[in-house]
């Protein structure tokens, strides 16, 4: 995501905006209210597309994505750099960079997010959808203490008094493993180490017990010990709060450990999707297979890692056929004529020469 997008992404957490949100959301008939039936359901996304530019210069950066994440479930969203993972998160949050527009349906519980007014959408972001951004330092507001950044959404969107919100912020910091939470409440983001900032981001994202948590590369900047601690923490909180989680990562080994479902993006399109077990036991798309072969296997040091030669196309140059074809060992001329149709059901893929097919 661009610096501008990241800047915009934390605008709703700024104090001034939140005050106006509160006034608007309380009066807004579209402001999402949670019913008990909604709490039991997760996220349903249908045909989500994000477009930049106009007329002949228009291009899609993600195209026709459809997926579901039920309450308590984790979807691992994987793909190379630039495949559209963060753009998908931005579209779900209604926080696209300037010039971007989305189409398709994003349903959280019974609420169609794409039809909400701006004020109701900001309230939904404060209350229903938590986001751990790819870069915590640029997503936390440097001029506000962590108490202000965690307690304010809780006070504004969950109706708590200021002392109750502060006490909630302290409990959350304790819960995410920030030592000496009472004292650290009044510190600013730059006073925290990278690992602790990640924890503060998680506390912020969880302040209102959101129904959906989007974790965009939540641990890339961390050492392996911190990484495991943070991911286990998210997993534990997910169980306790019954959240649907979208876990965005380059790292398929983390997906194998933490996700029940996998969606692989390549150049803005889904190439394969399904239950994690099916995916890892029998990947069907050659791109998925190449990604899996690139995972280091400590148990077999003899096995060589395979690189995927070449680069993905730029969004302005997406071809009509399979976008992976130029890099694919199984490519034939047919691959270049049209985007492959979906094959399979719960575990599905888009390829006319799938891995494991009898020829
Ligand atoms: N403001 C923008 N305007 C137009 N295109 C953009 C903009 N921001 C990003 N893109 C393009 O959208 C595509 C998807 O980007 P995105 O940030 O979602 O990738 P990603 O999968 O999250 O990559 P990474 O793993 O590096 O974080 C890329 O081709 C990128 O160049
Ligand atoms: Mg990204």
Automatic annotation (TrEMBL):
Biased composition (Basic residues): 1-11
Entry superkingdom: Bacteria
Cellular component terms per the entry's GO annotation: plasma membrane
Location of this chain's protein in the cell: Cell inner membrane
Spans annotated as Disordered: 1-42
Membrane topology: Peripheral membrane protein
A GO molecular-function descriptor: ATP hydrolysis activity
Basic and acidic residues bias locations: 12-22
Main localization (coarse): membrane
Annotated ABC transporter domain residues: 43-292
Cited PANTHER family: DIPEPTIDE TRANSPORT ATP-BINDING PROTEIN DPPD, OLIGOPEPTIDE TRANSPORT ATP-BINDING PROTEIN APPD
Name of the protein this chain belongs to: Dipeptide transporter ATP-binding component of ABC superfamily
Species the sequence originates in: Acidithiobacillus ferrivorans
Gene designation: dppD
